[in-house]
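ugh ok fine here u go
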Amino acid sequence: MASTKGEIEVVPVKSADRVLTLIELLTEHRDGLTFTQLQELTGWPRSSLYGLLRTMADRHHLEFDPHSQGYRIGVRIWEAGQAFNWSIKISELAIPYLREARERLNETVQLAVLDGIENIYVAKVEASHPLKLDSFVGARLPAYATGIGKVLLAGLDESELDARLKGVKLTKYTDTTILSMGRLRQLLRDVRTQGFAVDNEELTLGVCCWAVPVRDVTGSVIAAVSTSIPSARVSEEIEETALEVLTETAGKISSQLGYKPQAVASDEHG
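structure:
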């Protein structure tokens, strides 16, 4: 029904109303809802619902999980209004573990999620050293040029990776920036195998980074943890310690999210 405000008639816009309804439903169901569940809850025509979901997912206001076939709130909503509840939850959950890692390493430790082909930092704990990474929560960086971003890209299945990299031009930031799509894909395969990624001054001269994945209850990579260390302080011993601490840290966060490595491995092997 139309309403009035002064002499201006305000008419509800059906498509906008439906978008807001979807956001509200998925805010209430933080683990996500399938297309069928959303159709049952809304009663909308299947074609209309599919069009809305596809548009919102393409714009990253919703995220689609190929494992559960469910939709959930996306990173754009969090970034615009700090209403990305899942990201807030994981960042709040992760902070104590990031602080613990910082105490052990005395280096900057951060948590990031993926949006398109950019990683967005959602939590960060600073080192006490005067020489440290100049970044901040909410910052966006090209995933292919960071350790944390490569972990996140490696967590995508091949079809999703193809879609995100299609038409992308790799920009040079330093002499070690990856500029070949073929080399990038090979590195991502290596990351999947070895379980970590490295940034060897690929984005910023004088800064190296090590990163490992954070997984949810399905085993999907939903975030990553990294430490950034000025190259002047890097040594083989520091690298080994950093990977050990990061792996433990990511494991604790993943466990809090319901990830059980043995159970997932058992399921995968029938």
